[in-house]
Amino acid sequence: MGKVPCCDKEGLKKGPWTAEEDQKLIDYIQKHGHGRWRTLPKNAGLKRCGKSCRLRWTNYLRPDIKRGRFSFEEEETIIQLHCVLGNKWSAIAARLPGRTDNEIKNYWNTHIRKRLLRMGIDPVTHTPRLDLLELTSVLNSSLYNSSQLNLPSLLGIGPILNPNMLSLATALFSSQCRNTENITSQYLHQHQLDQNLVQNQLQSTQPAQLNTINSSSQANQLQCPVQEIQPCATSNIISTPFSSEPQFTHVKMEQLPPNLTNFSYQNSPTKLWQNNGEHPNDFSVSDYSLLKFDPVIDPQFENQILRSNNDESIPNFSFGTLMSTPSTSPTPLNSSSTTTYANCSTEDERDSYCSNILLYDMPNSLNASGVLHM
DNA sequence: AACAGTATCAACCGCACCAAT
DNA sequence: GATTGGTGCGGTTGATACTGT
């Protein structure tokens, strides 16, 4: 037996609410309280579906609704919570007083999601967009081997992968090899070496050579033991990274701290796939070297990330934190510029700021979802 | 000024869950 | 255990505003 409609749709009004309807609803709820939404419209003299009344009240008329632009703190909180909770808008809204799930959902879809995409971060997984990496890698390696043709470069998709993010992902992955600290330090050393080599040789070196250059580094990555899994703070999170399923359905909300505005990177999906010992799409470090880029990542910043992920005494890294309070930016700290994400007043400034941290160009041949238009 | 394309967001829809019967 | 009503949730739609040509 199918569920009956919440109310008879005959003669019921749809569409935007008028001021008069709003006032009727407010008056009724002030007198009788809300609830019993099915019978409420009739009692209140409204020709509306009860569901519509509830939505109007909870999303718009409720007295504790905070309207207007999202603050930077709110935006950062949304990003961090979404990283943990996924599209659980009501759960996110519960931790943002005065904001509704609908408002947050809209803001995510129209602002944050696009910004993350522009930054080369997958808004679903909150990880660097390794799908693009894989695509570029496959195209480049196969085509180069067969024809000496660098198709991605020809297509203009070489620079789509932010080298900073790729480097960061590599570093983070490496840092999970907890019981092989020598490997990590070896990697650090190796990585610095590679950075220099890449810097010096990238423009003139053949891709095959670059593969060789990074092969030892890659080997270090791939031998990281799978079993070294650190339990997450929310230990009941079971995630299958890069799957199409919602990633955080196992999060029990009541077990999360009520004020989750500084959630640790320890619990991010990036961490989760690392903890699972899985490596999405089996990307290899050497693949990075095939990318055409001009390395600009600040080694201090990268090392700080590595330390923060290895050293329990250094608290937390998250993309949200990266965006709002970068400890190191491409602009030297001692420069006169004191711009941070948090004091960018406009959307453009936020974008510009993020772009400066995460230099990244989306070629026209890719649409917003990263689909290549041939 | 007019038009087209894009962005925004309030509102709707369908489904799922839960409690009461 | 099955049915029903109430409610909440996430995805989608469509009207409107904005922007570029």
UniProtKB/TrEMBL annotation:
Residue ranges, annotated region (Disordered): 322-343
Listed GO MF terms: DNA binding
Myb-like domain segment(s): 9-61, 62-112
Superkingdom of the organism of origin: Eukaryota
SMART domains: SANT
Segments of skewed composition (Low complexity): 324-340
Chief location category: nucleus
Short name of any one Pfam family annotated for the protein: Myb_DNA-binding
Cellular location(s): Nucleus
Domain HTH myb-type, residue spans: 9-65, 66-116
Protein known as: Uncharacterized protein
